[in-house]
Design goal:
The chain has 364 residues and is α/β, with parallel strands linked by helices. The chain has two domains: 174 residues, Rossmann fold; 181 residues, Dehydroquinate synthase-like - alpha domain (Dehydroquinate synthase-like, alpha domain). It is globular.
Length: 364
């Protein structure tokens, strides 16, 4: 086994993100040490449970932990109040107490829903994140955001709950489809543009492959976790600097919702990032040639750089985003590789930015 431990130290909780190869079966021992409890409740989905649920339950039981579990339907379209309620009901039926722990076993959807259930069950119990997708490993499992979707928008109901432990085993990435693996690269590219010119150049020249050496996978995932950790440590509840992690998300979320969640989150963030880069360059906010550089790196990871959705659809979806404040919207603008700035724009300006981001592009 090879592993890297990234410590996270927020105002509400300090914890470790353990990234390694072949570490899934150590979950029970690590959980017992990190957060002693009276019971563990595992939430997984219909894609992940057949692959890993029995192994996880066995590891927990070997650590003398009482276990129960529930399996929900996979996919963003099931990240609903109804599914959330079913998780809560299963937790209550398992007679969990305030001393119990929820384990989120799966991708970002499971992590969001299980985390939100933990945040609200008995006014809050602990959660351990066990991400199985690249997207969840590098992004959603770290930082404490939990949420469910409403019909009119993504992640509109949620809470902050920092996990007590994150365990990411990169060998789980071998069971992903190529499309799902590539989806995680959307957030990886975003992190590189946000904070690491070195990572950006590495990805541009050497796109991350699913069959890469496990040590290299551990390195890249750990580097992404550290980037997000540094931002979250400085601003746990997104009052300032943490908003920069929404780079690519204003238009990305609009693409995601406008397309009926048929595309993965990372694909939409990648397209949204490229769109915002083009708009920023058009406005003179970004370094000349930045958009082309970001598009090149994005394409190298097998990700889209634009969308076929029309500006009106994107604008309508974007105005439902939780980053809207009355008649203005906070946006994150890339100005160079490794540099971004927060801007507050009017809704009319947002519409103009969306229109300019699509001007002269072809779907890719």
């Amino acid at each position: 086994m090879s592993e890297t431990v990234v410590p996270v130290d927020t105002t509400s909780r300090s914890y470790q993100v353990v990234v390694g190869s072949g570490i899934l079966d150590t979950l029970g021992q690590r959980l017992a040490e990190a957060c002693p409890c009276d019971a563990v409740f595992v939430v997984s989905d219909s894609n992940v449970a057949p692959l890993y649920l029995e192994r996880v339950l066995s590891s927990l039981q070997q650590a003398n932990l009482k276990t129960a579990s529930t399996v929900v339907a996979a996919g963003e379209t099931h990240k609903t109040i109804e599914t959330y309620a079913s998780i809560l009901a299963a937790m209550a039926e398992a007679q969990l107490s305030r001393d119990s722990v929820v384990v989120a076993l799966g991708g970002g959807v499971v992590g969001d829903m299980a985390g939100f259930a933990a945040a609200t069950y008995m006014r809050g119990i602990r959660v351990v994140q066990v991400p199985t997708t690249l997207l969840a490993m590098v992004d959603s499992s770290v930082g404490g955001k939990t949420a469910i979707d409403l019909a009119c928008g993504k992640n509109l109901v949620g809470a902050f709950l920092q996990p007590s432990l994150v365990l990411a085993d990169v060998t789980c990435l071998s069971t992903l489809t190529p499309e799902v693996f590539a989806d995680g690269m959307g957030e990886v590219v975003k992190h590189a543009v946000l904070a690491s010119p070195q990572l950006f150049e590495t990805l541009r020249q050497r796109p991350l492959a699913q069959d890469a050496d496990p040590a290299y996978l551990v390195q890249v995932v750990s580097q992404n976790v550290a980037i997000k950790r540094d931002v979250v440590n400085a601003d746990e509840q997104e009052r300032g600097a943490r908003q920069t992690l929404n780079l690519g998300h204003t238009i990305g979320h609009a693409i995601e919702a406008g397309d009926g969640y048929l595309q993965g989150h990372g694909h939409c963030v990648a397209a949204g990032l490229c769109c915002m880069a083009r708009a920023a360059e058009h406005k003179g906010w970004a370094k000349s040639g930045l958009a082309a550089r970001i598009e090149s790196c994005t394409k190298a990871q097998g990700l889209p750089t634009t969308t076929s959705l029309d500006p009106n659809t994107l604008y309508s979806q974007a105005t439902h985003d939780k980053k809207r404040h009355g008649q203005t919207m906070n946006i994150v603008v890339p100005t160079d590789i490794g540099a971004v700035e927060l801007r507050t724009v009017t809704l009319d300006e947002l519409r103009s930015l969306i229109e300019s981001s699509l001007s002269g592009t072809e779907e890719s």
